Amino acid sequence: MKIIVINGPNMNMLGIREPDIYGRKTYADLINMIEEEYKDKNLDIEFYQSNHEGCIVDKIQDMYGQRDAIVINPAAYTHTSIAILDALKSVALPAVEVHLTKVEDREDFRRISYPGKYCEKTFAGLGFQGYIEAIDYLIEKYGKDHE
Ligand code: DQA
């Protein structure tokens, strides 16, 4: 199975940005943790991070016919981006949303998720483990179709 893990703006600043909220581990730590978790499994994982909405839209479009499923943490674009929602709908791949923090318990402006309206599931508030839960969900549901 081929999965892409997409992270939005400021996720490259993990470890530095607001450590009280997001922790001290870095984006590289996140990738290493996911790669380590699946190293013995028949899974091809690509990683993509961008601070630019249009680049994320381009990347989602590029995944059409290339990847079997998408894990996405759109970061701040979660709460603003109809363009990312429409890109997910356009390629119509299975998608799961992840947030490190429990967004619904934070500021009111974080309560809405546009990409979440397309995603099958959201894992929020589990830290890095949310990505593992998201990937496991996709493997469980779609893995057998894409061995
Ligand atoms: C986030 C939550 C968003 O509200 C925020 O803008 C982020 C990270 C999370 O993973 O908890 O950048 O998506």
Provide a descriptive summary of the structure in words.
This protein is of the alpha/beta class and 147 residues long. 33% of the residues lie in helices and 18% in strands. The chain contains five helices and five strands. It has helices at residues 19-22, 27-37, 53-62, 82-91, 129-142; strands spanning 2-7, 44-49, 69-73, 95-99, 121-124. It has a five-stranded parallel β-sheet, with helices on both faces. β3 (69-73), α4 (82-91) and β4 form a beta-alpha-beta unit. α3 runs parallel beside α4 (82-91). It is globular and about 40 Å long. The protein starts with a strand and ends in a 5-residue tail after the last helix. The model has no long low-confidence stretch (mean pLDDT 97). The structure holds 1,3,4-trihydroxy-5-OXO-cyclohexanecarboxylic acid. 1,3,4-trihydroxy-5-OXO-cyclohexanecarboxylic acid is lined by residues 10, 73, 75-76, 78, 99-101, 103, 110.
